Amino acid sequence: MFLKPSFxxxxxxxxxxxxxxxxxxxxxxxxxxxxxxxPIISPGKVSQHLHSLHGGNAISMNLTYNSARTSTCTSxxxxxxxxxxxxxxxxxxxxxxxxxxxxxxxxxxxxxxxxGSADVSNGGKGLKAFPPGFRMITGDPTKRSKLYTEGLGTQxxxxxxxxxxxxxxxxxxxxxxxxxxxxxxxxEAGLNARLHMPACWDGVNLDSPDHKSHTAYLSMLDNGxxxxxxxxxxxxxxxxxxxxxxxxRSRWVGKPWPFVWxxxxxxxxxxHGDFFNGWDTTVFQNxxxxxxxxPDQLAGVVEACPYFTIQPATTYSACRAKTTExxxxxxxxxxxxxxxxxxxxGPGAATLYSTSNCPI
Length: 360
Hints:
- Helices cover 11% and strands 21% of the residues.
- The protein contains 6 helices and 17 strands.
- A hairpin with an 8-residue loop joins strand 9 (165-168) and strand 10.
- The radius of gyration is 20 Å and the shape is globular.
């Protein structure tokens, strides 16, 4: 038996970890909504799989920058940030019944990081705010295995390296560890799913057909240079979502890993994330240019930037999406994942099915 700290205490401890050169840490509460919408990949349509969405409450399948700015609240701490952030949702597949149940989400922590040779702290000319209408993604929902030798440094390898998470085991006597895919043990203090966003922009396109080509990763992922094809340096986003596995422990420990992502993924390699800019760009650029000198600012304390209006956690935790566009059963227990998402184990790329070609 071990003494397990509360899940809320674990999240608080994560938020207090000092990350080198982290510009600020933006805490976001539990999701605004969990539904099958994705205004980047599937604008105006029901999304292929379920997402957990955070940020401005004007989120919709037809989201634009202007509509994002009509949000009346945000589930994140800074009121001038009406952006939206989303990821797949984690499910538990009961080893005995085969039924799926949604796993509690402890909220999203977004690190806004001043990385790269272009940042003033590294002697560069400075980073730029995301322009109105800008959006980006990282990761691949069809991925089911690791393909590249780590350190190769190509954009494809950097994209793979960007999706690496951590098994938290505080208070158990067990050592936590980082991993690609899914972990191999219980994560008693939470599954801390992480991802890096690209931090370089081509300076022209707010989006691209694959939603990736207009952006690029820094040459060392977490630092380094922007490629010549993508010369505009941006703030680098790093997501952490901590999923609370504790309520399922008695039903699976000693058996194979039973958790899956909502995009039909039992391997973990298909973890991915989306960002849709909704910032007040003037406030954001002023913060980039001027909130980088005091000890608290350099330590990533979001409250230390005077350009930001910080709302209490009780306020942003109460924010909910204005509308729910896709009404369906998502909590479980249920026989299948929302949408058409039969589990696909790889190692080849998965097929993203629609209702018209669903094999189940």
